[in-house]
Protein 1
Amino acid sequence: MAVKDLPYHSRQLDVSKQENRSPEFLAISPSGTLPVLKDDATVVRESQAIMFYLDRAYPSVPLYGKTPVEAGRTMQEICEQQSYAEPVLHPLIGALIFNRQTTTGEITQASTRFEGLLGEMNGRLAATGWLAGDSLSAADLNLYPLVRAVIEAHSTEKAAGFGLRLPSLGPFPHVVAWMRRLEPFTSAEK
């Protein structure tokens, strides 16, 4: 909504306190899944569905491109993220943020794979600064929060317990610049 310059109110729920299981929240998200968008009487769950809804309801600043080629490129990037990037990121998020059981070996391997992912992203971002074309798209908004969460999780006590430390981001200047461009959209509230 910040990208589209729409007014909104954001409320973060603490899943560890089961705030996503309150009767009030379950009334709009029966499975308790996050995120959820409530736009007047319309309720949309899941990040991709929310972005798609917002793109159709508020078409200025298109998140899926202006042309069929741009839309296809954006969806292709999102599908590739789901197949290749998310399997690298989810084990780290699960272990370091949601305290899912894992072994030190598994978490070390996942962290090494994360560095490889940063290298791949850096190469793709070198051309235009964005993942799916010449401008910000749903593909960037899909991957950014996961990458940011993993980077932040590397500096936690939990990560230190696994012997992890944040990999140097110096070799990934295009990733760092991409994250800086996206940061204003993640902390804004109107």
Protein 2
Amino acid sequence: MAGGEENGRLTSGGRDMNILVLGMDGVGKTALIVRYITKRYIGDYDPYSEAMYTSNSVIDGKPVTLRVIDTVGLEKNSKRSEQITWADGFVLVFSLTCRKSFEAVKRIKEHINELRQDTKIPMILVGNKADLSHARAVNPVETRGLATDLQCPMFETSASDNYGSVVNAFHALYREVRTVLKQREKVKKVMQKPGISKKLQIANALRNLREFRIRTYTV
């Protein structure tokens, strides 16, 4: 991968990003990805096929390579765990016409949290099929409420009718990732300062000593 990568992950100076798209089958995950990459809408896909797509994009005037994995199902398995660990950012997709898919998003986020101990995990929430307003099953107040709970940006998109909404969502995720990585690198530099590092070593030593005493007294 690119020179901006550190330990297999994107750094703030990198130009590559790994994206994992998650959601129930049938919500339009593949349609969103293909629409973003090719600008075309294709409504018929194999619902049981996972694939990785690569897009050479320009975001905020800079060339960026996006690697996007399109997932199938919500099963918790070793493959999905590897994908979640691999990703720099996540797109959580539900259909605005399917309440069950909306309710599944929280379970998806909980699974990500189980595997990632990051303080802030870059992700966006996408309600797809906004063009089917007559069949809408999730109202805007609910979608905004979920985005607040997940602490991430929310986008309503239509892979079939609105290319711009799809582009805005993917580019927003890229910016989320960059922001989080810059914050992490800033904290890392502060923690590496000699004075801070020494204080942390002392604090860790004292904590370990307290834990040892507790274990000793409770045996």
